Amino acid sequence: MFNVNKLCLFSCLCIIVVIVLYFQTEIARLEENYRKLEFRLVQSHTESREFFPKSLERNDDDTVVIYNRVPKTGSTSFVGVAYDLCKRNNFKVLHINITANRHIMSLNNQYRFAQNVTKWHEVKPALYHGHMAFLNFDRLGTTSKPIFINLIRKPLDRLVSYYYFLRNGDNYRPHLVRKKHGDKMTFDECVERGQPDCDPNNMWLQVPFFCGHAAECWKPGSQWALEQAKHNLVTHYLLVGITEQMLDFITVLEATLPRFFRGATEYYLNSNKSHLRQTSSKIEPSILTIEKIQQSTIWKMENELYEFALEHFNFVKRKLLAKEANNVAQIYFYEKIRPK
């Protein structure tokens, strides 16, 4: 009798678990459908009420987008979406390959690159991507400027991911042997022993990537570099997304640059691009390690930039999805044009 009761109890628990899992799956599915519907409503209201003279419309076929991707921020997943959409949406994608994977260009190459990107009309519209620091086209004598976009990630998460990437590789190219292959030291052990690979100075990467090519940008702990990075982020970038909110980043881009990203949201949701490149055998750091890293000046400054970018991105996203009093998306159009 006792065993029968236990069996009944176990069966009931199994049924409850199945029901809970079913409803969790349904909730996730409904949330995805709601996101799609909300985005489509934004598009439909905007497209149906935009009244722009053809002579004032921007020639989107002349547009150049530069994605100066920070390493280990999910950039491979995002670029994968662009490569899969480029034929459908009729634009070019080009990878910027700098000698020895350096993140800054020599002055002569900065000038040549700026001139080439803006004048190479045969490949326009184009999206360029590469691990390159921000380049200010204002100082390089170009008559037109590209649109900059980027992604930023929590600084410690990015450092831990890169640490294990160098040792274990990733699922994108699993058979490629990395330079620290065979090193079994965990990130916690590295921090405890004060090894150079986990030195907080190695986190000084997102600040200089947004700061640019100035020498001061690459001095770890430079307050000037941090302020310049913030200034560039809001002044020279059309959009800077958050790795943890990749889907929202793509959704905002689709609404803003449909010439390139039409269909990107639905494609990302229904493809394997959301986790195209994952570091293998990554071990999350302990609380003690996290607390120790967070005491460093470099982490505080890199995190300040991340929090700044997060707040700005959420502000942009809310404005895109915000509804007016009559429950329609924000639009603008021209009226009372005089003389007729």
From TrEMBL:
GO cellular component, one term: Golgi membrane
Transmembrane region(s): 7-25
Alphabetical UniProt keywords: Disulfide bond, Glycoprotein, Golgi apparatus, Membrane, Signal-anchor, Transferase, Transmembrane, Transmembrane helix
Subunit record text: Homotrimer.
Protein location: Golgi apparatus membrane
Protein name as annotated: Heparin sulfate O-sulfotransferase
Keyword set includes Nucleotidyltransferase: no
Matches recorded under InterPro entries: Heparan_SO4_2-O-STrfase, P-loop_NTPase, Sulfotransferase
UniProt main location, coarse: Golgi
SUPFAM superfamilies, per database record: P-loop containing nucleoside triphosphate hydrolases
Family of this protein: Belongs to the sulfotransferase 3 family.
Source species, domain of life: Eukaryota
Gene Ontology MF, one: heparan sulfate 2-sulfotransferase activity
Gene Ontology BP term (one): heparan sulfate proteoglycan biosynthetic process
UniProt membrane topology term: Single-pass type II membrane protein
PANTHER family in the record: HEPARAN SULFATE 2-O-SULFOTRANSFERASE, HEPARAN SULFATE 2-O-SULFOTRANSFERASE 1
Keyword Ion transport recorded: no
Organism per entry: Chrysodeixis includens
